[in-house]
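REQUEST FORM: STRUCTURE PREDICTION
Request ID: SP-0412
Submitted by: Lab K.M.
Chain count: 1
Length (residues): 275
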Amino acid sequence: MWTAEQRARHKVRAPKERKGYPTDVSDQEWKLIEPLLPGAARTGRPRRTELRQVINALRYLVRSGCEWRMLPNDFPPYQTVYYWFRRLVRRFLFRTIHDLALMLDRMCEQREVVPSAGIVDSQSVKAPGARERGYDAHKKISGRKRHIAVDTDGRLLAVNLTPADIADSTGAQMVLDALVKRWPWVKHLFGDAAYDRRTLLDKAAYLDFTVEVVRGLQGQDGFQVQPRRWVVERTFAWLMRYRRLVRDYEQRLDVSEAMIFIALGSSLLRRMGFR
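STATUS: Completed
RESULT:
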Protein backbone atom coordinates (compact mmCIF):
# COMPACT_ATOMS: atom_id res chain seq x y z
CA MET A 1 0.00 0.00 0.00
CA TRP A 2 1.33 3.38 -1.02
CA THR A 3 2.05 5.83 1.76
CA ALA A 4 1.78 9.63 1.49
CA GLU A 5 5.57 9.86 1.55
CA GLN A 6 5.90 7.46 -1.39
CA ARG A 7 3.24 9.29 -3.41
CA ALA A 8 5.02 12.61 -2.83
CA ARG A 9 8.34 11.08 -3.95
CA HIS A 10 6.86 9.75 -7.19
CA LYS A 11 4.68 12.73 -7.93
CA VAL A 12 5.03 13.91 -11.52
CA ARG A 13 6.89 17.17 -11.57
CA ALA A 14 5.42 20.06 -13.53
CA PRO A 15 7.47 21.10 -16.55
CA LYS A 16 9.84 23.95 -15.89
CA GLU A 17 9.03 27.33 -17.32
CA ARG A 18 11.06 28.47 -20.32
CA LYS A 19 14.07 30.50 -19.30
CA GLY A 20 14.39 33.74 -21.22
CA TYR A 21 17.26 34.70 -23.51
CA PRO A 22 19.01 38.09 -23.32
CA THR A 23 17.49 38.93 -26.72
CA ASP A 24 13.87 38.33 -25.68
CA VAL A 25 11.35 41.14 -26.07
CA SER A 26 10.66 42.85 -22.76
CA ASP A 27 7.17 43.82 -21.61
CA GLN A 28 7.89 47.49 -22.37
CA GLU A 29 9.09 46.66 -25.88
CA TRP A 30 6.07 44.46 -26.47
CA LYS A 31 3.72 47.35 -25.68
CA LEU A 32 5.36 49.29 -28.51
CA ILE A 33 5.55 46.40 -30.99
CA GLU A 34 2.23 44.61 -30.47
CA PRO A 35 -0.05 47.29 -32.06
CA LEU A 36 2.04 47.08 -35.26
CA LEU A 37 1.55 43.33 -35.72
CA PRO A 38 -1.23 41.85 -37.89
CA GLY A 39 -4.36 40.97 -35.98
CA ALA A 40 -5.99 37.55 -35.91
CA ALA A 41 -8.04 36.64 -38.98
CA ARG A 42 -11.81 36.81 -38.60
CA THR A 43 -12.30 33.56 -40.49
CA GLY A 44 -10.41 30.30 -40.72
CA ARG A 45 -8.46 28.40 -38.13
CA PRO A 46 -7.53 30.35 -34.97
CA ARG A 47 -3.92 31.43 -34.75
CA ARG A 48 -1.87 29.10 -32.56
CA THR A 49 1.53 30.77 -32.87
CA GLU A 50 2.37 33.48 -30.37
CA LEU A 51 3.92 36.34 -32.36
CA ARG A 52 5.98 37.46 -29.39
CA GLN A 53 7.85 34.16 -29.53
CA VAL A 54 8.39 34.67 -33.27
CA ILE A 55 9.99 38.06 -32.63
CA ASN A 56 12.10 36.50 -29.86
CA ALA A 57 13.28 33.79 -32.25
CA LEU A 58 14.23 36.32 -34.94
CA ARG A 59 16.19 38.47 -32.52
CA TYR A 60 17.95 35.37 -31.18
CA LEU A 61 18.85 34.28 -34.71
CA VAL A 62 20.31 37.67 -35.67
CA ARG A 63 22.32 38.03 -32.47
CA SER A 64 23.65 34.47 -32.23
CA GLY A 65 24.15 33.89 -35.97
CA CYS A 66 22.65 30.38 -35.94
CA GLU A 67 20.95 28.75 -38.93
CA TRP A 68 17.18 28.67 -39.28
CA ARG A 69 17.13 24.92 -38.68
CA MET A 70 19.20 25.31 -35.50
CA LEU A 71 16.77 27.54 -33.59
CA PRO A 72 16.30 26.18 -30.03
CA ASN A 73 13.32 23.90 -29.48
CA ASP A 74 11.65 26.29 -27.04
CA PHE A 75 10.91 28.61 -29.97
CA PRO A 76 8.21 27.81 -32.55
CA PRO A 77 9.31 25.50 -35.41
CA TYR A 78 11.75 27.22 -37.76
CA GLN A 79 9.32 26.81 -40.69
CA THR A 80 6.72 28.78 -38.74
CA VAL A 81 9.24 31.44 -37.74
CA TYR A 82 10.40 31.86 -41.35
CA TYR A 83 6.81 32.04 -42.63
CA TRP A 84 6.02 34.87 -40.24
CA PHE A 85 9.35 36.54 -40.97
CA ARG A 86 8.58 36.71 -44.69
CA ARG A 87 5.07 37.96 -43.97
CA LEU A 88 6.31 40.68 -41.62
CA VAL A 89 9.02 41.74 -44.08
CA ARG A 90 6.33 42.36 -46.71
CA ARG A 91 4.59 44.64 -44.18
CA PHE A 92 7.87 46.56 -43.56
CA LEU A 93 7.39 45.83 -39.86
CA PHE A 94 11.05 45.75 -38.84
CA ARG A 95 11.80 49.00 -40.65
CA THR A 96 8.78 50.62 -38.98
CA ILE A 97 9.86 49.45 -35.52
CA HIS A 98 13.36 50.78 -36.16
CA ASP A 99 12.16 54.17 -37.38
CA LEU A 100 9.81 54.59 -34.42
CA ALA A 101 12.64 53.69 -32.04
CA LEU A 102 14.90 56.16 -33.87
CA MET A 103 12.47 59.04 -33.37
CA LEU A 104 11.82 58.09 -29.75
CA ASP A 105 15.55 57.96 -29.08
CA ARG A 106 16.03 61.41 -30.59
CA MET A 107 13.24 62.71 -28.37
CA CYS A 108 14.93 61.18 -25.32
CA GLU A 109 18.14 62.99 -26.31
CA GLN A 110 16.11 66.24 -26.54
CA ARG A 111 16.73 66.61 -30.25
CA GLU A 112 14.39 67.23 -33.15
CA VAL A 113 12.33 64.14 -33.93
CA VAL A 114 13.48 64.08 -37.56
CA PRO A 115 17.14 64.64 -38.54
CA SER A 116 18.40 67.32 -40.90
CA ALA A 117 21.94 66.03 -41.55
CA GLY A 118 23.55 62.67 -42.11
CA ILE A 119 26.75 60.80 -42.95
CA VAL A 120 27.14 58.29 -45.78
CA ASP A 121 29.62 55.45 -46.06
CA SER A 122 29.86 51.84 -47.21
CA GLN A 123 31.02 48.48 -45.86
CA SER A 124 31.99 45.40 -47.85
CA VAL A 125 31.24 42.00 -46.30
CA LYS A 126 31.62 38.46 -47.53
CA ALA A 127 28.41 36.95 -48.89
CA PRO A 128 28.90 33.23 -49.60
CA GLY A 129 25.22 32.56 -50.26
CA ALA A 130 24.31 35.66 -52.26
CA ARG A 131 22.72 35.22 -55.66
CA GLU A 132 24.73 38.16 -57.00
CA ARG A 133 28.02 39.28 -55.53
CA GLY A 134 31.04 41.20 -56.71
CA TYR A 135 34.70 41.68 -55.83
CA ASP A 136 35.82 44.79 -53.98
CA ALA A 137 39.40 45.20 -55.15
CA HIS A 138 40.19 47.86 -52.54
CA LYS A 139 39.06 45.76 -49.56
CA LYS A 140 39.87 42.44 -51.30
CA ILE A 141 36.44 41.05 -50.41
CA SER A 142 34.07 39.07 -52.60
CA GLY A 143 30.51 39.65 -51.50
CA ARG A 144 28.08 42.52 -50.95
CA LYS A 145 28.46 46.17 -50.08
CA ARG A 146 26.26 47.99 -47.58
CA HIS A 147 25.72 51.63 -48.46
CA ILE A 148 24.19 53.41 -45.49
CA ALA A 149 23.28 56.88 -44.29
CA VAL A 150 23.10 57.67 -40.57
CA ASP A 151 22.20 60.76 -38.57
CA THR A 152 24.86 62.69 -36.67
CA ASP A 153 24.53 60.30 -33.70
CA GLY A 154 24.86 57.11 -35.78
CA ARG A 155 21.20 56.04 -36.10
CA LEU A 156 20.48 54.32 -39.40
CA LEU A 157 18.44 56.38 -41.87
CA ALA A 158 18.71 54.39 -45.10
CA VAL A 159 20.53 51.35 -46.46
CA ASN A 160 21.19 50.10 -49.99
CA LEU A 161 22.68 46.64 -50.65
CA THR A 162 24.65 46.00 -53.84
CA PRO A 163 27.37 43.65 -55.10
CA ALA A 164 30.74 44.64 -53.66
CA ASP A 165 32.11 45.83 -57.00
CA ILE A 166 29.67 48.76 -57.16
CA ALA A 167 31.36 52.10 -56.50
CA ASP A 168 30.51 54.01 -53.34
CA SER A 169 29.20 57.00 -55.26
CA THR A 170 26.94 54.79 -57.39
CA GLY A 171 25.43 53.00 -54.41
CA ALA A 172 24.95 56.31 -52.60
CA GLN A 173 22.60 57.53 -55.33
CA MET A 174 20.02 54.95 -54.24
CA VAL A 175 20.54 56.09 -50.65
CA LEU A 176 19.67 59.63 -51.73
CA ASP A 177 16.42 58.38 -53.29
CA ALA A 178 15.53 56.58 -50.05
CA LEU A 179 16.27 59.67 -47.96
CA VAL A 180 14.00 61.82 -50.10
CA LYS A 181 11.10 59.43 -49.56
CA ARG A 182 11.57 58.55 -45.88
CA TRP A 183 13.49 61.49 -44.36
CA PRO A 184 12.79 64.53 -46.60
CA TRP A 185 14.12 66.92 -43.94
CA VAL A 186 17.70 65.65 -44.39
CA LYS A 187 19.48 68.18 -46.60
CA HIS A 188 23.15 68.03 -45.60
CA LEU A 189 25.35 64.96 -45.99
CA PHE A 190 28.95 64.25 -45.04
CA GLY A 191 31.15 61.72 -46.81
CA ASP A 192 34.74 60.81 -47.58
CA ALA A 193 36.65 61.42 -50.80
CA ALA A 194 34.99 58.44 -52.51
CA TYR A 195 31.79 60.51 -52.78
CA ASP A 196 33.46 63.42 -54.55
CA ARG A 197 32.10 62.35 -57.95
CA ARG A 198 30.31 64.53 -60.44
CA THR A 199 27.38 62.15 -61.05
CA LEU A 200 26.64 61.91 -57.33
CA LEU A 201 27.07 65.63 -56.70
CA ASP A 202 24.84 66.49 -59.66
CA LYS A 203 22.09 64.20 -58.44
CA ALA A 204 22.45 65.55 -54.91
CA ALA A 205 22.08 69.10 -56.20
CA TYR A 206 19.03 68.08 -58.24
CA LEU A 207 17.43 66.57 -55.10
CA ASP A 208 18.36 69.65 -53.05
CA PHE A 209 21.10 67.95 -51.02
CA THR A 210 24.42 69.44 -49.99
CA VAL A 211 27.27 66.91 -49.91
CA GLU A 212 30.29 67.94 -47.85
CA VAL A 213 33.43 65.87 -48.45
CA VAL A 214 35.51 65.34 -45.30
CA ARG A 215 39.05 64.66 -46.42
CA GLY A 216 41.96 63.22 -44.51
CA LEU A 217 44.27 65.52 -42.60
CA GLN A 218 47.29 66.84 -44.44
CA GLY A 219 50.36 64.77 -43.69
CA GLN A 220 48.28 62.06 -42.01
CA ASP A 221 50.26 58.91 -41.24
CA GLY A 222 48.21 55.86 -40.32
CA PHE A 223 44.70 55.81 -38.93
CA GLN A 224 43.25 58.93 -37.34
CA VAL A 225 39.69 59.72 -36.34
CA GLN A 226 38.08 62.04 -38.87
CA PRO A 227 35.41 64.60 -37.95
CA ARG A 228 31.88 63.36 -38.69
CA ARG A 229 33.09 60.21 -40.46
CA TRP A 230 33.78 58.34 -37.20
CA VAL A 231 30.04 58.30 -36.46
CA VAL A 232 29.15 56.02 -39.35
CA GLU A 233 32.13 53.79 -38.59
CA ARG A 234 30.72 53.31 -35.10
CA THR A 235 27.40 52.22 -36.65
CA PHE A 236 29.24 49.55 -38.64
CA ALA A 237 30.83 48.43 -35.37
CA TRP A 238 27.35 48.10 -33.85
CA LEU A 239 26.36 45.85 -36.74
CA MET A 240 29.38 43.62 -36.14
CA ARG A 241 28.07 42.79 -32.66
CA TYR A 242 25.38 40.71 -34.35
CA ARG A 243 26.93 37.50 -35.65
CA ARG A 244 24.38 37.07 -38.40
CA LEU A 245 25.65 40.34 -39.91
CA VAL A 246 29.39 39.69 -39.70
CA ARG A 247 28.88 37.99 -43.05
CA ASP A 248 25.89 38.29 -45.32
CA TYR A 249 24.42 34.79 -45.35
CA GLU A 250 21.17 35.73 -47.10
CA GLN A 251 20.38 35.04 -50.73
CA ARG A 252 17.78 37.80 -51.03
CA LEU A 253 18.52 41.48 -50.57
CA ASP A 254 15.25 42.21 -48.76
CA VAL A 255 15.98 39.47 -46.21
CA SER A 256 19.46 40.86 -45.58
CA GLU A 257 18.06 44.37 -45.18
CA ALA A 258 15.44 43.13 -42.69
CA MET A 259 18.18 41.51 -40.59
CA ILE A 260 19.91 44.89 -40.33
CA PHE A 261 16.73 46.61 -39.16
CA ILE A 262 16.04 43.85 -36.61
CA ALA A 263 19.52 44.30 -35.15
CA LEU A 264 19.61 48.09 -34.97
CA GLY A 265 15.95 48.37 -33.93
CA SER A 266 16.49 46.14 -30.92
CA SER A 267 19.72 48.01 -30.13
CA LEU A 268 17.88 51.35 -30.08
CA LEU A 269 15.13 50.01 -27.84
CA ARG A 270 17.67 48.58 -25.43
CA ARG A 271 19.58 51.86 -25.34
CA MET A 272 16.40 53.70 -24.33
CA GLY A 273 15.90 51.36 -21.42
CA PHE A 274 13.13 49.14 -22.86
CA ARG A 275 14.46 46.14 -20.95
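NOTES: The domain at 115-217+226-250 is CATH 3.30.420.10 (Nucleotidyltransferase; domain 5).
Reviewed by: T.R.
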